[in-house]
Amino acid sequence: MSIPEACLIGHKKEMRAVQDSMDILSGKWKIAIISSICYYNKRRFSDILKDVEGISNRMLSKELKELEINKLINRTVLDTQPISVQYELTEHGLTLKTIINNLTEWGIAHRKKIIG
Amino acid sequence: MSIPEACLIGHKKEMRAVQDSMDILSGKWKIAIISSICYYNKRRFSDILKDVEGISNRMLSKELKELEINKLINRTVLDTQPISVQYELTEHGLTLKTIINNLTEWGIAHRKKIIG
DNA sequence: CGGGATCCTTACTGATACTG
DNA sequence: CAGTATCAGTAAGGATCCCG
Hints:
Chains A, B: Residues 7-115 form the HTH hxlR-type domain. Two copies of one chain form a homodimer. Chain A is α+β, with helices and mostly antiparallel strands.
């Protein structure tokens, strides 16, 4: 992150970038959903429903749709009986892996800090 | 991230860790607020209000309070006329720097991808 | 300047039931 | 199984005014 002297002027660009990320990732569930898919590589609707504690199918459906629109995940209908749908991260979605890992580590560290 | 064969069992622990992080960081503004303070080291209320586009003073006030409760930031009242209040990251809050940087980079990359 | 209080609108969300 | 539809409650957020 070697940041030049432009620091003196401001960080509008960085702030904008963070906002851009959050526009897509914010919301109560998105990160958790992406994590689920990321950790398992491929994941079905009902599996994600179990991974993400507390989410309703209505919300999951909606969030998955948004993630698909933003090209972070791919949706594949499998020809099973009954039907099943598989989600996986796109190449672009995979670039979030670092962030997921950071959040996982930070969550663990934070929990230790709180509990003791 | 060398993950052992425990993969086969599941990733409940990691999922939980991510959720723990998000419980504290989610919300439309928190990450942006932390970024502002992080990038400038010390930042006053009115400055953050300008950095975080679109936030209202009511929301900023509320979010800052929550971040303070979670020990991510410190609040210092400066003895100026009129009064001013400075916020800075705690040691614990500083551990979020990696995540902020990742989000910044990802935001820039994502924008390039979308615009072309 | 840094908020708090009030009011009001919209977005988010869960529960439940239903369909291909 | 993987959603969709409807209903209704809660919470998030904005605008405005006020105060030390």
